[in-house]
Design a protein that fits this description.
InterPro entries: AB_hydrolase_fold, CBD2, CBM2/CBM3_carb-bd_dom_sf, CBM2_carb-bd_dom_sf, Esterase_phb, Plant_Biomass_Hydrol_Est
Oligomer: single chain
Protein name: CBM2 domain-containing protein
Largest sheet: 10 strands, mixed
GO molecular function: hydrolase activity, hydrolyzing O-glycosyl compounds; polysaccharide binding
Keywords: Hydrolase, Signal
Number of strands: 21
Order of helices and strands: HEEEHHEHEHEHHEHEEEHEEEEEEEEEEE
CATH topology of the largest domain: Rossmann fold
Strand order of the largest sheet: 1-2-4-3-5-6-7-10-9-8
CATH architecture of the largest domain: 3-Layer(aba) Sandwich
CATH class of the largest domain: Alpha Beta
Radius of gyration: 22 Å
Low-confidence stretches: 1-26, 300-311
Structural class: alpha+beta
Number of domains: 2
Length: 412
């Protein structure tokens, strides 16, 4: 079963690589480094240093998908080409175990200086800082799928090393943890590991007990139709990293950078991009540039964002059917003006937690939540409506939300 899942991850990631432009020919080339320090799990290290780098250059760790390699990730993504433009150094680690997935499961990799893959990658970083005079305050991580999971691990276990990260289709830090020696956690992959924000945050804080320094910024990308590492993992990642930074799960801003994308920001520390109708294969042209803009590794103007016009004259009908410890809610959103792409925001009363939903994507599961349209019901014509529903548990509190807003505009 695990091999089939690895194969699915590899197929999706390989397809993504085919649509991303390879780096242009340069005198600089990818070089393997074989003696870089502590390497408990025998990772391979490939390094790309552009012909021209900035003084005290930044360092980016770019981690591959399952069955991938560092050289394949170098060839199939834009990071090296962007390094040529902006003068930073890229490290491409390669996993060295069955399936070529990174270890994001063992207690060693999830603990600061505990060993395994995370320590090996940190050794690569320390080697580059010492050998190339890189800036230790500007070290970042990114990756897709298994590499996105490793990005979460690196930022969680080594906040003293990494200043920020971007995870394309990953899971929260320690979500994949196992105790039986297995490297695959099906429950997490299926989006069934649900914790409170504090519980997720405690896992990160417990990885490096006593650490009191700054925590890395995090950008998260996920497709709503991801069938390999399912979409609920995005909401759990948001819970984790907002709690780590002491932030509310209520976004400080919401916009729409591209068709079918919804971006929520939580102060300037955490950012999440939800890609409506997109599967596990999500890393395409232009996304690397957006990721590096978030990390501060590129120059120039940020991409123009397009925001749907706010809804006006919206009305919400909210019908509950309750029983001992649970309830279902049916929600109808009506608007007097046409809406193309909608997000309904409301706060669930204390003790209520969403367990499943239909005709909308609802994140997070409790507190201040957002219900976003799915692929087939994003358009509400003038005078029309859209409906969705969800099932939830309660602790005796069966009150209704006090207010709703549609695309940022209050509804009656």
């Amino acid at each position: 079963m695990r091999q089939r899942i690895w194969a699915a991850v590899a197929a999706a990631a390989t397809a993504a690589a085919l649509v991303v432009a390879a780096p242009s020919a340069q005198a600089a080339s990818l070089v393997e480094v074989t003696d870089f320090g502590a390497n408990p799990s025998n990772l391979r290290m490939h390094l790309y240093v552009p012909d021209t780098v900035r003084e005290r250059p930044a360092v980016l760790v770019a981690s591959h998908y399952c069955t991938g390699t560092g050289p394949a990730f170098y060839s199939g993504t834009e990071f090296a080409r962007l390094a040529d433009q902006h003068g930073f150094i890229v490290i491409y680690p390669s996993a060295n175990r069955s399936g070529n997935c990174f270890d994001v499961s063992s207690q060693a990799t999830l603990r600061h200086n505990g060993g395994s893959d995370s320590l090996g990658i940190v050794s690569m970083v320390r080697h580059v800082i010492a050998r190339h005079g890189a800036d230790p305050a500007r070290v970042y991580a990114t990756g897709v799928s298994s590499g996105a999971m490793m990005t979460n691990v690196l930022l969680g276990a080594y906040p003293d090393v990494f200043a920020g990260g971007v995870a394309f289709a990953g899971v929260p830090f320690a979500c994949f943890a196992t105790t039986d020696g297995s490297s695959w956690n099906s429950q997490c992959a299926q989006g069934q590991v649900i914790r409170t924000a504090q519980q997720w945050g405690d896992l990160v804080r417990g990885a490096y007990p006593g650490y009191t320094g700054a925590r890395p910024r995090m950008q998260l990308w996920h497709g709503t139709q991801d069938d390999t590492l399912r979409y609920p993992n995005l909401g759990e990642e948001i819970k984790q990293w907002t709690d780590v930074h002491g932030l509310s799960q209520t976004p400080t801003s919401t916009d729409y950078p591209a068709a079918n994308w919804t971006r929520t920001r939580y102060s300037d520390k955490v950012e999440a991009i939800s890609m409506q109708g997109t599967g596990h294969n999500l890393l395409t042209n232009g996304m690397a540039s957006r990721a590096l803009e978030f990390l501060g590794l590129t120059t120039g103007q940020p991409p123009v964002t397009t925001t749907p016009p706010p809804a006006s004259g919206c009305t919400v009908t909210y019908t509950m059917n309750t029983w001992n410890t649970g309830f279902t809610a049916s929600v109808t959103v009506s608007s007097t003006s046409a809406v193309n792409g909608w997000t309904l925001a409301f706060t669930l009363p204390s003790g209520q937690t969403v367990t499943s939903g239909w005709n909308a994507t609802i994140t997070p599961a409790s507190g201040a939540v957002q219900a976003r349209n799915v692929q087939w019901n994003g358009a509400i014509p003038a005078g029309g409506s859209a409906s969705f529903g969800f099932q939830a548990t309660h602790n005796g509190n069966t009150a209704r939300p006090a207010s709703f807003s549609l695309n940022g505009t209050p509804c009656s």
